[in-house]
UniProtKB/TrEMBL annotation, chains A, B:
Residues 24-122 form the HTH hxlR-type domain. Gene3D superfamilies: Winged helix-like DNA-binding domain superfamily/Winged helix DNA-binding domain (1.10.10.10). One of its GO terms (molecular function) is DNA binding. This is Helix-turn-helix transcriptional regulator. Keywords: DNA-binding, Transcription, Transcription regulation. PANTHER family: HTH-TYPE TRANSCRIPTIONAL REGULATOR YODB (PTHR33204:SF37), TRANSCRIPTIONAL REGULATOR, MARR FAMILY (PTHR33204).
Amino acid sequence: MATQTAAQRREQARRDYDAFLRGCPTNQLLDRISDKWVSLVVSALAAGPMRYSDLGRKIAGVSPKMLTQTLRSLERDGILSRTVTPSVPVRVDYELTPLGHSLALLLTAVKDWAETHIEQVHQARERYDGDN
Amino acid sequence: MATQTAAQRREQARRDYDAFLRGCPTNQLLDRISDKWVSLVVSALAAGPMRYSDLGRKIAGVSPKMLTQTLRSLERDGILSRTVTPSVPVRVDYELTPLGHSLALLLTAVKDWAETHIEQVHQARERYDGDN
DNA sequence: CGGAATCCTCCTTGATACTG
DNA sequence: CAGTATCAAGGAGGATTCCG
């Protein structure tokens, strides 16, 4: 059995690390909230329940596929609840769970940091782009 | 002229919305911190300055390309500073700026939320996957 | 109305190899 | 040591179409 090559060792390390990252709560959460549409859906629902098509209209530019996909994954994670009213036509309401409201609070903290510091970031970028 | 199709209207809306999102501080921040390697680099540097290859070793599994790309973008945003010591061989140190340390604090808040609530998320998933 | 299934196209990621 | 250049692949996201 030959010694591992450097490439094989790197690949092994990468695999281990990927496994670690998948198990890391922080990265799981970051993956979730950084999804393009998640923060928009959560903040839209923070104000109160909404129907599928209301969300689609409020979050202009989202395709039905991505909206459904986003809502499903958030439902699966217990962030929001989905209620079907079997009228004709069908009516489906989405609403934040307590866990979802808690997440909305965290997103508010993120938003506050962003709004407080974004100007510093922009200034840093101008400096960086100007100098280089 | 012809009526726009639904897709065309949505594309226009999507374009407008993309522009809005690019200008939205919260989404800019989420884009930044959700990058696979950013949180790892920031938390690694939160403990103190490190050299390029130290980071590469500490964050196992990152390729030189991604490490450089991550470091450059964080430097551009004023999150960390890059110091070259022109010795032989060259020595390059990376260190968080005050802004970077502030960001590290936010990441700590995210981490705390994640560790506090991840169990609820996992339970919700099991319930969802079990029921379905 | 509220989706599901399919196809297709970028864009990011990462491997590999080379340089000052 | 600290990167850069190039290339290939996979997956995320969008368009389109159809169903209950």
